Each structure stands twice: as C-alpha cells, then as structure tokens.
Amino acid sequence: MKRHLLSAADLSRTDAELVLETAAEMLALADRPIKKLPALRGRTVVNLFFEDSTRTRISFEAAAKRLSADVINFAAKGSSISKGESLKDTALTLEAMGADAVVIRHGASGAPHRLAHSGWVHSSVVNAGDGTHEHPTQALLDAFTMWRHLGNLDGRRVAIVGDVLHSRVARSNALLLQTLGAEVTLVSPPTLVPVGVEAWGVETSYDLDAVLPKADVVMMLRVQRERMQGGFFPTPREYSRRYGLDARRMATLQDHTIVMHPGPMVRGMEITADVADSDRSVIVEQVTNGVAVRMAVLYLLLSSDSQEDTSL
To answer: Which CATH superfamily is domain 136-284 in?
Structure first.
C-alpha cells in the first residue's frame, strides 16, 4: 500500500483485496484468548478528530491498541484548536510528539490531503472522514462485510439509498465497490443527488421500489440535517414514505440480499426498527468488521517499513 490512505480512489483492486484479506486474518484474533498482536509495538497513532465521532474514533483506537501501538486521542473540543490554533500548528505539535500515523476527521473536504502533502508531518495520514468528500475506511469495512456474505463482488448489485449529496460514505463506496467489480446504483430524491455524479460511473434512480428487487446489497444512509440549509424534501414523513426501508419493502428483496447502514441510524426515518434488527441486517457486524479493517490498514501502512517480524 501507499504511505497514506486519503481516498478510496487511491486503492487499486490489488490494494483493496490485500486490505480485505488482511482484515480477515485480523478478525480471527477475536477468537483468541488474548486479542493483541505485537506488530506495531513502539509506534504511535494519533486520532485527530475535529468533528464528533463515536464509532470511527473508538474503532481506530481499538484497532491501534490491538496491534500494540501507543494511542493519543486528540479532540478539537477542549484543545488549543478551540482557541483558534491552525491545522498547521496542530500538525507541527504532532510531529514533535513523534506520531507515526495521524488518523484525521475534519469538517473541511480535502483537509487530510493538505496534511499529507504539506510537509508539516512525516507520518502516514489516514482519512477518517473529510467534510462531504470521502471516508475510505468505512467503504473498506462495508466492502469487507459484503465480501464475507456474498463472496466475490464482481457483478453484484449494490443500492446506496438516501442523502447521497452530503454522504462521504456514498462517494467512497461508489469508488471502491466499482474497483472491486460491483455495480452501484444511487437512489435518492433529485434534490439530494450531487452535481457531477455522472463522473462517478454509477447508475442513479429516484425510484426505490424499482431498484430493490434486483439488489444484492441495500445500504441505507442517514439524512444529514446538520449539513442542510433549506428544504431538500417536504417532510420527514414524506421522505420515509418514498425512500425509507420498511418491512413491506424488505419483503421484495431477494433471499440472499443484506441490509447495511454506516451509522448512526435514525430509526423510523430511513429505516424502521424491525428492518434494522432483522436477520437480513448486518449493521452490528459492520461495527465489528470496522475494527478488523482498520487494524489491517494501520498494519499495512506502518509495518511495511519496519525491520521487525510483523507476521500474523
């Protein structure tokens, strides 16, 4: 793998499959009495989160600790960033601390790229979500979950449904899943389709009921009201009626089709509770797989230049 993971587009099919295969080995650790490897002992991973996060931050922290790395959690609130410190000065502080990897979540699209290519730090940079741009490790864990249930993704049909406009998860998944051979359809109201989506190479549809029976995977997205100014749809009830996944719609799915959600879910809005908790749902499994995938990413980024034995 390259030195940084900034975009799903950076990953070739060989790179992506290497991450998935490594994650499968990492997942096997969960069955061991001691769930740790010495692979990154002596390395320091900094979680630099300018936006609130639960799943992603904890997942990266758990991943680094299971690889025996030292972890520093750096939240914007309560730090010098809240006093006006710039990204550059924060980065120089991290460099002085000897960080080997910086996992960054930032509200501005492109911030991880800026950090990686600025010369401010010499550590590996992992994009944990930047604005409405990308979230590559979420796409990797989603692909890993599909891979474990469906096997090879060549020709598999994946429907990504909801607020595509504001979803960095949708963009990263669209890029990565096509790299792995899947066919992606984005389903959303016309007001929530990004400008220039044609360049993504995906199908688009406004009709959820027409897409569902053919899908092998249905991934529901949260409506990100915190990123909205103005009315993108009439009412939450109308949105749920047109684009929500309920028991009636779930009954139209093929027997093998799985239901996914990157979280956090708004039950009753984009997905009903009975669907979220059904046998088809792999939403909790996605969280478990997230730790294994992020272990794989950190391992592949940081162990490659180590002289120590990092075999599993």
So the answer is: Aspartate/ornithine carbamoyltransferase (3.40.50.1370)
pLDDT in tens, 45-96: 999 999 878 889 999 999 999 999 999 998 776 555 555 578 888 899 888 9
- Architecture label for domain 8-135+288-302: 3-Layer(aba) Sandwich (3.40)
Among residues 212, 157, 182, 137, which one has the least CA distance to residue 13?
182
Question: Of 135, 157, 171, 280, which residue is the catalytic one?
Answer: 135
Q: Is there a binding annotation on residue 294? A: no
CA atoms within 13 A on the CB side of 112: 28
Q: Pick the catalytic residue: 56, 90, 137, 185?
A: 56
Q: Are 202 and 177 spatial neighbours (Cβ–Cβ below 8 Å)?
A: no
Active site residue 2: no
272 annotated as ligand-binding: no
pLDDT digit string, tens, across residues 243-262: 999 999 999 999 999 999 99
pTM of the model: 0.92
Residue 241 annotated to the active site: no
